[in-house]
Write a structure and sequence with these properties.
With about 425 residues, the protein is of the alpha/beta class. The chain has helices at about 25-30, 35-55, 70-75, 80-90, 95-100, 135-140, 140-150, 205-215, 230-235, 260-270, 285-290, 315, 320-330, 345, 375-390, 400-420; strands at about 5-10, 55-60, 110-115, 125-130, 155-160, 175-180, 185-190, 220-225, 245, 250-255, 275-280, 300, 305-310, 335-340, 355-360. The protein has a single domain (about 5-65, about 100-420), classed as Succinylarginine dihydrolase (L-arginine/glycine Amidinotransferase, Chain A, 5-stranded Propeller), CATH 3.75.10.20. The strands form five sheets. It has a three-stranded mixed sheet with strand order 2-1-15, covered by helices on one side. Strands 3-4-5 form a three-stranded mixed sheet. The chain is globular. The protein binds N~2~-(3-carboxypropanoyl)-L-arginine.
Length: about 425
């Protein structure tokens, strides 16, 4: 049966705070902080369990090989992997941090997914994202593409390599889909940024257009909408920081889009029963929306047909957001529950519940079962994380070769447990 499967990024053992993402305020604020990779991965697994517990299908993607010795070799360091790592760590700590990032945990940036019901050839199309605007993220797509090709090897899927780097593409974080049911044809909305503001605009309109073309989407069911410069300048480095869609609902901040009126009109024309829930700045300021990650929540259709939000605990701790959510849940609108999960380690790098998952609408029977989760596997993964993941990484640890040996061993143990070689 076709259903929505959330593929969360299993948080890798190299998770650290290196302030690598210009325009991502949480990442900048945690420069120099000590990370807790073991706690981070356990928080991520607890979220996956929670969503499974709501009766939904859950998958996961594996962390990439870090430090990335191929990248360091390309940057001129020579020798064995150990030598390359030691030399880069000593010569250029900032460059080395790029090679170490666990940023592939945010699988909303791994790819853009167009379900089979939307595409010309009736296959589910998945395009790895080039993430070319941030150096540490631009080195993800090769390994990500290889992993997606393995997980979605069935002919029901068409997995594409990333677009040329000249056109920044950040994957599903800048893509929304509205539909009457997950397996019915939908309206796909591609949200892009325009240069000229305080921070880099990460999603290029031409990249969005290329994805829509290669996925074979019908032009009359596809919308391209610009992010508001105001939102990017305020720290909405991806659209999913200020908007989220599911089923016939689009939940967005009033200041998310350059031309919200045009988006509403397009949507009303293409999907008359769409429900646009716009949160006014008078109820929740853009600053509160961004610091709490109200919109970086998972908006889920539960097995009984109702809709629930899975939000970060930071949303509950922000008075304006808490008050707003109480009215949403109490009202007669489509969202009837709000649940809070602790993903603080990821949040401190600007990644909320929605960043940590890639939605794929498909028949779970056509997905490689090694990438699907059940309670027994979650138990095993938790034991493995407890055993192998470093407890903490402080800035001074980044030059310690023993840490990187442990990180490599931890990932190897995970791949062996899951039975995947990548
Ligand atoms: O690309 N943070 C990520 C957060 C990605 C959030 N994803 C979505 N919104 N979908 C980013 O900015 C910080 C890494 C560091 O600073 O160490 C980082 O890459």
């Amino acid at each position: 049966m076709i259903r929505e499967i959330n593929f969360d990024g299993l948080i890798g053992p190299s998770h650290n705070y290196a302030a690598l993402s210009l325009g991502n305020l949480a990442s900048a604020r945690h420069a120099g902080a000590t990370s807790l990779p073991r706690a981070a991965a356990l928080q991520g697994l607890a979220k996956m369990r929670f969503v499974m517990g709501l009766g939904l299908c859950q998958g996961f993607l594996l962390p990439l090989d870090r430090p990335d010795a191929h990248f360091l070799r390309a940057m001129g360091f020579a020798g064995s992997d150990e030598a390359v790592i030691a030399r880069a760590a000593a010569a250029d700590p900032r460059l080395f941090a790029i090679a170490c990032s666990a940023s592939s945990m945010w699988t909303a940036n791994a790819a853009t997914v167009s379900p089979a019901a939307d595409t010309a050839d009736g296959r589910c199309h998945i395009s790895a994202a080039n993430l070319s605007r941030m150096a540490h993220r631009s080195i993800e797509h090769g390994q990500t593409h290889a992993q997606l090709s393995l997980a979605f090897a069935d002919p029901a899927f068409a997995v594409h390599a990333a677009l040329p780097a000249a056109f920044g593409d950040e994957g599903a974080a800048n893509h929304m889909r509205l539909c009457s049911a997950h397996d019915a044809p939908g309206v796909e909305i591609f949200v892009y940024g325009e240069e000229g503001g305080r921070f880099p605009a990460r999603q290029h309109r031409k990249a969005s257009e290329a994805i829509a073309r290669r996925h074979g989407l019908a032009p009359d069911r596809t919308i391209f909408a610009a992010q508001s410069q105001y939102a990017i300048d305020a720290g909405a480095f991806h659209n999913d920081v200020v908007a989220v869609a599911n089923g016939h609902v689009l939940f967005a901040h009033e200041q998310a889009f350059a031309d919200a009126a045009a988006l509403k009109a397009d949507l009303a024309r293409l999907m008359p029963d769409a429900h646009y829930i716009e949160v006014p700045a008078s109820a929740v300021s853009l600053a509160d929306a961004i610091s709490s990650y109200l919109f970086n929540s998972q908006l889920l259709t539960l097995p009984d047909g109702s809709m629930a939000l899975v939000l970060p605990t930071e949303a509950e701790e922000t008075p304006s957001v808490k008050a707003y959510l109480a009215t949403v849940v109490a009202g007669n609108g489509p969202i009837s529950a709000a649940h809070f999960v602790d993903v603080r380690e990821s949040m401190q790098n600007g990644g909320g519940p929605a960043c940590l998952r890639l939605r794929v609408v498909a028949d779970p029977g056509q997905v490689d079962a090694r990438f699907l989760l059940d309670d027994a596997k979650a138990d095993r993964l938790e034991r493995l994380v407890e055993r192998w993941w470093p407890e903490c990484i402080a800035p001074a640890d980044m030059a310690n070769p023993d840490l990187w040996a442990q990180v490599k061993t931890a990932r190897a143990a995970l791949l062996a447990e899951v039975g995947v070689s990548l």
